[in-house]
């Protein structure tokens, strides 16, 4: 198991009575590569994304090609695309996509927020169709793409709320 902890880094569990320290510092999200348990991803704060290819012993920094002038949450949304090894999504005010384990990134969208200080605060992927992406924002928007991020449409409007997570029904 792998866990993300604020201020205490990415932690690893392999049985027994203790968790082992992986990456130090803030950790907002952690997950394994779908088909390779030696590859672990973790996010730090803002644009800091990491990948360990050795089961958590080393953690090189990724995300060098994400635009660092984008607006981003302290713990930005970061997740794998199911059944597509090495394919990742990351949220700023735009949705970013990587198909090579985070080595290179491309913007899938323009600004999906209403501007100002707003950011994408949640991402989701439909379990029944990995080409259906959802993005929730800090300024009450939820958008959906049915074509892997090439086009985005507003979902039903929300009251004035900060979107913290998106869960898609599995069917």
Give a description of the structure.
This protein has 171 residues and is mostly beta strands. It contains no helices and 14 strands. It has a four-stranded antiparallel sheet, with no helix packed on it. The chain has a four-stranded antiparallel sheet with strand order 11-12-13-14, with no helix packed on it.
Residue stretches low in confidence (pLDDT < 50, at least 5 long) are none
Q: Could you tell me the radius of gyration in angstroms? A: 16 Å
Structural class: mainly beta
Major β-sheet profile: 4 strands, antiparallel
Search tags:
14 strands, 4-stranded antiparallel beta sheet, globular, 171 residues, 0% helix
Could you give the topology of this structure?
Layout: E1 2-5, E2 9-12, E3 20-21, E4 29-33, E5 36-43, E6 49-52, E7 78-80, E8 88-91, E9 95-98, E10 106-107, E11 120-125, E12 133-137, E13 142-145, E14 153-154
Antiparallel strand pairs: 1-2, 2-3, 4-5, 5-6, 7-8, 8-9, 9-10, 11-12, 12-13, 13-14
Give a short synopsis of this structure.
The chain contains no helices and 14 strands. With 171 residues, it is an all-beta fold.
